[in-house]
Amino acid sequence: MKKNKYKNNNTEEKPEKTREETKKLQTEMGEKFGERTEELKKRTKELEETRRALINMLEDVEEARVKAEEERSKTQAIITNLADGLLVFNKDNILILANPQVENFFKIRAEKIIGKSTIELTKFLNFKSLMTILTNNYSNKIINKGIKEVFREEIIIKKNLILEVSTVPIVKEKEQLGMSIILHDISREKLIEQMKTEFVSLAAHQLRTPLSAIKWTLRMILDGDLGKITQEQEGFLQKTYQSNERMIGLINDLLNVTRIEEGRYLFKRVSANIEEIVKPIIKSYQTEMGRKKITFIFRKSTVILPKVEIDKEKIGLAIENFIDNALKYTFPGGRVTVALKYAKKEIEFSVKDTGIGIPNDQKDRIFTKFFRGANVIRMETEGSGLGLFITKNIIEAHGGRVWFESKEGEGSTFYFALPINRT
Ligand code: ADP
């Protein structure tokens, strides 16, 4: 009975407690469940947002891809339709691009040359001249397989096809990724240039004959061969004679230029001592130097100059052009120094003056045809702008080089150097 009582007591208390606990548990679970649901909702929302962001991103990527594709086809179209030939080499000197113009110029299919190195391309007959310019390799001797920088060098591919070659390095963040080569067709310009040269040559020849006739007639009158003339008449005739001489000089310059351009400027080389050529030229300018009150200095070589194989007349013309310019472009009272030096297997001739100098912005045009500085045109109206062009060609034909130093308002020094072994 006692036992039962206990038992009864227990069973009465327990449901109450259990109920309470169950309720508590339910409340707790309910709260937890609520929290979880909230959390799940939040996560779902976040996932939804992430999904939307991803879709947006994918759309952006797709848009960028389409844009890049468009850009690529645009670039491709530009390269394909470019009037110039375009070759691109990577940094390992392998050809990675050749546009249709290249195929057209060289009569070769792009797939035959793409993937080839500069050395392999040298073996293609059509490419030999181009690769020689680009790499400095001669015949079978490979000196350097890399591509050097080239600016406007001309190559004759065949009759009526002349190309101008220039290179442009492909650089990204200071690193060179390769080299592109631009081939510009200048055949038409060359043809026009040739026609112009032919015209100038013809006109100069036609003008020279009557000018020579005038010269000799004036000379006869001045020498009294045709009877006595008054002092006044002599004065006028002397001036006419000098003007005629200048015109003959100009015609001769023009003829020399046309001969240079047509490759007909011939050189008759003999063994000669440069000093012997310089001396009489200096002498012929003495009157002019005295008239302009120019202090003249001749610095001879301190060592005996070796003889050189030169065209005496043409080197004489080059020397004359330098001295003539120094006198023309130096104000009265100035100083002209002519010097001869022998160093490093070269004979160096220079003419230094204290004249008007050359403006910085015009220095790179000094040796070009018909160039006359803006400052000299105001000072000395006479001049053709052909003297230095002819001089440069004469010296370079002898394997030599010309250069100058100058400061506007202070003076200039013009140099040429002739190699001893190559002339
Ligand atoms: P030209 O003297 O007939 O004009 P050149 O070809 O001899 O032609 O010279 C070209 C130009 O170079 C000159 O017009 C002048 O502007 C410049 N030049 C040449 N020599 C000198 C010099 N010694 N001093 C200053 N300028 C010079």
From TrEMBL:
InterPro entries in the record: BphY/WalK/GraS-like (IPR050351), HATPase_C_sf (IPR036890), HATPase_dom (IPR003594), His_kinase_dom (IPR005467), HisK_dim/P_dom (IPR003661), HisK_dim/P_sf (IPR036097), PAS (IPR000014), PAS-like_dom_sf (IPR035965)
Domain of life: Bacteria
GO cellular component: plasma membrane
Chain segments carrying region Disordered: 1-39
Any one of the GO BP annotations: cellular response to phosphate starvation
UniProt KW Cell division keyword: no
Biased composition (Basic and acidic residues): 10-39
Assigned keywords, A-Z: ATP-binding, Cell membrane, Kinase, Membrane, Nucleotide-binding, Phosphoprotein, Transferase, Two-component regulatory system
Catalytic activity: ATP + protein L-histidine = ADP + protein N-phospho-L-histidine
Keyword Transferase on entry: yes
Top EC class of this enzyme: transferase
Database matches in Pfam families: HATPase_c, HisKA, PAS
Main location per the UniProt record: membrane
Domain Histidine kinase as annotated: residue spans: 202-422
Coiled coil: none
Transmembrane segments: none
Gene3D superfamilies: 1.10.287.130, Histidine kinase-like ATPase, C-terminal domain, PAS domain
Recorded GO MF terms: ATP binding; phosphoprotein phosphatase activity; phosphorelay sensor kinase activity
EC number(s) stated in the UniProt entry for this protein: 2.7.13.3
Domain PAS stretches: 71-119
Annotated protein name in UniProt: histidine kinase
